[in-house]
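Possible regression after last week's pipeline update?

I re-ran a chain I had predicted before the update to compare outputs. Posting the input and the new output here so someone can diff against the archived version. Not blocking, just want to make sure nothing changed silently.
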Amino acid sequence: MNRRRRSTAFLAVAGLTAGLLLTAPQPASAANLIKNPGFETAGADGMPYCWEKSGWGDNDFTFTTTADAHTGAKAMKVELTRRVDGDRKALITESAACAPVVSPGKQYDLGLWYKTTTPDAAITLFRHDTTAGWQYWTDLKTLDLAGNWTEATVRTPEVPAGTDRISWGVSVYGTGSATTDDYTMDQVPDPVLPPECTGTAEQCANGKWDVLPTQNPVRSMHSVVLNNGKVLLIAGSGNDESMFEAGTFTSAVYDPANGSYKIIPTPKDMFCAGHVQLQDGRVLVMSGNKGYPTADGQIGYQGYKDSYIFDPETETYSKTNDMNDGHWYPSATILGNGDVISFGGLREDSTGSVTAELFSEAEQQWQPLWKVNQTWSYWGLYPSMILMQDGRLFYSGSHVFGNNIPGTGSAIYDYDANTTTQVPGLRNKDERDQSASVLLPPAQDQKVLTLGGGNIDSNPDANRLTDIIDLKQPNPAYVAGPPIPQGTVDLGDGPVPQTGNQGKMYVSAVLMPDGKVLETGGALHNRADPVYETSIFDPASETFDPVAVDPEARGYHSSAFLLPDGRVMTTGDNPGNGSWNHDVSVYSPPYLFKGPRPQITSVIDTEWNYGDTQRITVDRPIAKAELIRPAAVTHSSDPNQRFVDLPLSVDGDNVDLNVTSNPNLAPPGWYMLFAVDANGVPSVAKWVHLQGPQALKATDASAHVHDFADAPKGKVAGPGKKRTSQKVSPTVSGCDRHYGSINVCVPTDFPAEVRRTTAARCAWLKANDYGRLKVNGKDDPLGLDRNRDGTACGKGDLARR
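New output (post-update):
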């Protein structure tokens, strides 16, 4: 995770007043929004009018107004002669007098002429938020080395709401110089044609769900979109002990092109494993189920140490070396160098694992314990660990089963320093069991949304909470977002409207190519009471828009994910009675009913490097393009899901895409490339392969890392005392194993509205189709076998008082 922490050392000269001017300002051209675009008019502090010195970090630098100009008599040269970290840049003065006025929702074409002696120079953009003030926005384009005057152009993303001005310039990140001249800025014309509705009014407003005619043949709870467009669906034993005892472990590969399924031989019980796509597109699958809980409830689930790699080309699994510990329900996060880090889960003895694991991309194996930094902390089950732009990990608070970790329930983990800093603001932190967390589009904005959740131990009504955190802030903290819209809930007698604060756990959240987030599915209680509600979250306005609802129940062991054609597929549902929903739903969002889709007619090169400019051709104008990392989702968790903006340089139907230079924003691997028009209508994706950090031109791969979240004030903890494990209750899954078969989940705690009587509990079990329940052993902790005949909720039990 080669990353050095940075101390802020930002230098910004204040805006110049008219009284300081040495000569009158040079008028800009009618279309050009830049004042003094060629540095011809002098200002103060040795800088031209409306330009200021800016930058940060430990480096030696000079700012020079040089006669070596593209046109006129002057140009600006910024040079670094020594660099440890940071950058320097000549920036449009951040003032009302100088910074160009912009309109939210609009895009702007930026241009300049330059010479460079370093490969580490980029066009950098700042924006003025009317509430929060000036702040870094994004790097738009890395400049190629150029000994002669060279033109660079790039189009901004849509200006965010609340932004009234922008400032920009060329940042020099590496030793060497950038000389620039003749800046231009023009507003992109609005699209001529409004969207054309090609479906019914309902479809154009809310989209459409279809339940596919062919069922999913396996009880899959893991869904991984492969780099050939197919989907790996992993079941293992499918939460069915009879399958486990028989050694029947299954996976399937689904092909959206023809709707077919292929059953894949599966060597181990990968039920509740972890998984992530490696840099080359293969899928790393870690741990899984070594054993089910015992009938007497003394031993819980157990995780094995085995690990496998699935190859999409051969559609086969191959074994890797073992992990250091067992990890049933582990996290899996790919890092900027292609390594994979994993935390949490249950060990072979069903205690909680405190061992961090690291899979080396270079060595293609799990590292021995002594090579991996350890905090000896128990992070829980499927802890949502999201890679930040500087290589640290953000634990969002989303997890599976019961209470959250101690403290605030959210934290930033610095692997290199081996420290954990608590992050405040997450509401009801112990009721975020099977909530969902996503890095909001675009990844460059570094905002995370966490939504919904419950608690299978105490079994309250799941909540409607959403919380949003901006990881660009020096001291980031969650703030309350809008509540999840309510739908209907089936409490056993058919769907009825949700009331009060009823929300949902088992939430699925999917990044879509128009830059919004689809949230769907869920249930009100532990493996019971499905909630039917789907909505689209807009990160720009931070609002939800309720849309068409998946007609199928999607609770525990369900998943939702984006297909390369822009649709969203949902599978699974495993209520407490042990049944399984094999029906598959596919959602066509409203953008698929807004007229013809743009087409990417060619991709010049599918092998991409960081900092590249890559050309595509399109059949008509587009407003944006992005990379979306394909899903690897289970139990509401996919911490690697991300949407990476690709700033554009447009020349008719030829569009140059500017790829980030920071591998922490877009970890190496295969991505879906979408082109999107001004009405939010996306193309069908093309697959491109983004290379690892060895492709970076910079000597220091951290050159384009910015200094965010640099002053968190939460409690900081270093490594704890070395230990073997964390004690975890055998009932961690919220199921009382004294009743029924192992794949049946009689809740340890019933919903609050169910009275603590045999009759009320048995009525609830009957309404939820639990059927006949054998009592395992002599214990009856829930009082369901009052006549002690070995069968719970029989006639004799209900007749007794």
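Follow-up from reviewer: compared with the archived run. DSSP finds four helices and 60 strands in the chain. Marking as no regression found.
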